[in-house]
# Entry
Amino acid sequence: MDLLREVKAYIVRHQLLEPDARVVVGVSGGPDSIALLHLLTRLDETYRPDVHVAHLNHGIRGEAADEDQRYVEALAEAYHLPCTIARIDVPALAREQNLALEEAARQARYGFLARVADQIGARHIAVGHHGDDQAETVLMHLLRGAGPAGLRGMLPATPMRDYRLLPPGQAARADLTLIRPLLGIPREAIEAYCEREGLSPRFDRSNLDTTYFRNQLRHEVLPYLAGINPRISERLRNLAEVVRADYELLQEFVGVAIDTLVIAVHSDTLTMDLARWREQPLAVQRAVIRWAAYQLRRTLRNIDFEHIEQAVEIARDGQTGARAVLPHGLELTVGYTTLTISEADAVHLPSERPWLEPGQVIPVDIPGVTLLRQGWSLHAREVSHWDLETIAENPNPLAAWIDANALGARPALRTRETGDRFRPQGLRGAEVRLSDFLINTKVPRTWRDHLPLLVSGEQILWVAGIRVSEKALIKPDTSRVIHLRFSMS
# Structure
């Protein structure tokens, strides 16, 4: 294999570099990063980048890590390249942040590379991931139950702001991209290249430790699978290529759907149109829920299949108030007309309904217009003609006909209070605890303290948008009727 020609073709095909690009190259001292550095310096003038070497000493392997550092420093000097070296105590970082050692090392490494890129004004960070790394990644994601996004494996180029491995609090520039020029090259070809070119890379013995999941795949699982199919690594790389193209097509559909579905996005809540979500194909429904979770949890890397399937099922078939648990303290809630992904303890109040602040009491003008918060108002008028059949078939939950004699002299809107009881229409005058009624009618927990109640004295006449009281019900012998209607100005 003419590795230089293959790498150049890969760079051109995936548009990884532009002329005179400034690139931070992460160099560990191993064969992959050494081959990458050597190849980038040999590209012709059209694609040869302005290379800056970066090496992070993780503080894990003692003297061996110090020798790696000295090796990279000497190599950069031999190539007449600028070099930035840093040392981070990754084991201490893992303990402080309660992370696995591998995860802490990744965060430290990519955070360091991004900082170097910022310091020198580079738009690219190049790393030495190769074809066998890709096969391991796809298999690892497959075993963990990943969807299409995970089965794509690693991408030839990834915007760093989309890469979920930067340390907490560190944001990447919008134009900073992580590139992998060796992703189409098998490990065997890279090692042969190093030998042919007289390169003497360092050897990291921790790569043999099969207590790490990736090393177990590399040294035990993939060799076993190769006994069944000698081309298993190639097959996994091909799978990644196929899924990546399919995923790009799916994302186009998802992007169009998001434009029509999303009603509001806040730091802790994302609200969508329920009916339109339910009209989408299953693949888009899954992808939209996954996208919404990532919008609220930027550091979230994986969502299990079971989480997404449960959320889809509840969003598709659940009644108002139904909820599904999502990772990292998120939940999905089915509203009357909305679908919400939010913090589990977030108070989400849909904008298509009026709400009161807990403890709020507002006198109601009858007849007249009573102003509420956020542009809502309650319109009240006495009607001289009414039809019991029309009232019974009322399609608007935010409108009601009330027996005027039940209103008393000082009707008001308020929120619920401890000990409230209610005589809902349909129970033949039976009185129930308001809290039980709200649970039985599946009013979401976070709504209950904000729900407007029309009251006369201690008597609840209308749980707005839910049910009228038997006491306020229009009957054949009713003499005066008040029509109430909430509206948004």
Q: What stands out?
A: The longest strand covers residues 50-57.
